[in-house]
Amino acid sequence: MEAKIRPIKSALVLVGPGTNGQDALRAARTIAREVILVGVVPIAKGQPISAGAQTARQVRKRLHSLGDAHTHFKARVIVSPTPWKDLQGVIHDERPDLLVMEWMDEGKTLWGSPVSEVLANPICNVAIVRGNIHPEPERTLIAMRGGPYAELALQIGMSLRPTELDILHISLTGAQTDAPFKGLNYILQHIPEVNLRSITTDDARHTIFEEAQKYGVIVLGTTASKTGGGSVIGPVAEKLLLESSATVILVKTRRPMSETMLDESVGAKAISILVDKWFAENTFHADEFANVAELLEFKKQQGSTISLALPALNEGETVGKVIRVIQKALMEKIPLIDEIVLIDSNSTDRTRQIAKGLGVPVYIHQELLPEMGSRPGKGEALWKSLLVTKGDIIAWIDTDIMNIHPRFVYGIIGPLLMNRNIQFVKGFYRRPLRVGDRMQAGGGGRVTELTARPLLNLFYPELSGVVQPLSGEYAGRREALEKATFFSGYGVETGLLIDIFENFGLRSIAQVDLLERVHHNQELEALGKMSFAIIQTVLRKLEPRYERSIIEEINKTMKLIKYSKGGYFLEVEEVAEYERPPMITIPAYRERHNK
């Protein structure tokens, strides 16, 4: 009968500020088929979590440098005053076979807490490494009595593939039974590559320590639990970790995790902590994704296709440059984008002709889905772009960007390619405001700061960390976008953001700093109408929460105050925000996309 020892498929390794976790990483690469790297940025007591954003970016850069064909780093970095609690959530999501950590000075974790904090109640199998693991260790010893961690120690010892692997079975003098070892002994009889030795002793600590001096690596389990005020590590392991010259791997098997450990939303204070934490972990910079060739590799690994949809209305001055820049950098030089389509809102200038001349398919949104009718507004164009695009990931950028650069596209796509848990990515940037012939660097975003962000802070505080909820540059996974409702006008960005949050949670949203964006600024009257539409959008989204209709009770006409030489007068204009249903519910869409 052939023995069956389960292979270790995936190992999770932690990287923090100032440490690459090299010992743990070398061990994990030797032990497991796949290594998952996760960054950890501990926050000192009394410090705001958002202060860790810069350090988180540095750790992501370090993670990036450590990646290889068998190593996948997570774009999300844990930033927290309680890293172990947050790491448990990552472990719950990733479900690694093994968590590999380094034994640091004085037995601390990389976030400063005692290793015993992890070992006291592990939620996955854990290996604590002290010392360097050679890719092919010559002699390895597995010390065991047959306790609850013996099989894991055997898994790890065999995974090291040493030239010589010895099992040292320790029996205590006068012990009445050796039952825990019997089942394991049967397995060992069918593993010819291991050498089994048995020793009976009345001092296990001394015996194992003396034997360990003959080996380069020793693997052993911890004590089962903390008893009598002692360490969960156990006296044998503690002596080896502190005094042995051998590389030591200490193992412990998992225990079930309480659901309460994942609860991040208890109490009002938790909202602020949650937002602060999200901001630090899910805020990226476009430079992190500037290696487009690498993004292409991530795209191939995901097996994804990417569409770029360009909404436009009379953008003849800028649309040509926008298309040419993206085509050259992200289609011809490196084929990150699979298609570009223009969704026109019945322009009266040469917008459509310019796009067609550059080989871009052009659709007039008023002519799509005629059975659904036509509504004015950018949101209508974005909604209908789902019908005519093919990609698994869909990106939108405005066509009035005067300083267009490929980062406006690869920046919002990057997080989606590097982290499958992210469903939606918003861009943000500095928005210089042109006043006459001068540019004010800190201006712009008036509707954002005076309307959108105050409303989100009031009713959706979890989204209060989104820098520019109204930005026109964003991307998402089709499977998420096709289930979202789209407002037809100015409220489309706000509505989408709330919808993704409500359907997939805050962690599914990321934001990227796209540096600076220069575009035409709108007149104050247009901004007033935009604010009016956004207020309607938020009220509409609140209706299910309060189980009553709100939007029908307000006046959807806006009285615009005008002035002429004769004085002031009112002009009434309807500014109504209407929703489009999830595209997945539209028969023509399901037929076209085989849903």
What fraction of the residues are assigned to beta strands by DSSP? 15-25%
Main sheet overview: 10 strands, mixed
Number of domains: 2
Low-confidence residue ranges: 257-268
- Pairing-aware structural class of the strands and helices? alpha/beta
Q: Care to count the β-strands?
A: 24
CATH topology call of the largest domain: Spore Coat Polysaccharide Biosynthesis Protein SpsA, Chain A
> Gap between N and C termini, in Å?
48 Å
Notes on the protein architecture:
With 595 residues, the chain is an alpha/beta fold. It folds into 2 domains: 10-261, Rossmann fold; 270-542 and 550-592, Spore Coat Polysaccharide Biosynthesis Protein SpsA, Chain A (Alpha-Beta Complex), CATH 3.90.550. The chain is 35% helix and 23% strand. It has 19 helices and 24 strands. The strands form 5 sheets. A 10-stranded mixed β-sheet has the order 3-2-1-4-5-10-9-6-7-8, with helices on both faces. Strands 11-21-16-19-15-12-13-14 form an 8-stranded mixed β-sheet, sandwiched between helices. The longest helix has 23 residues, at 524-546. It starts with 9 loop residues before the first strand and ends with a helix.
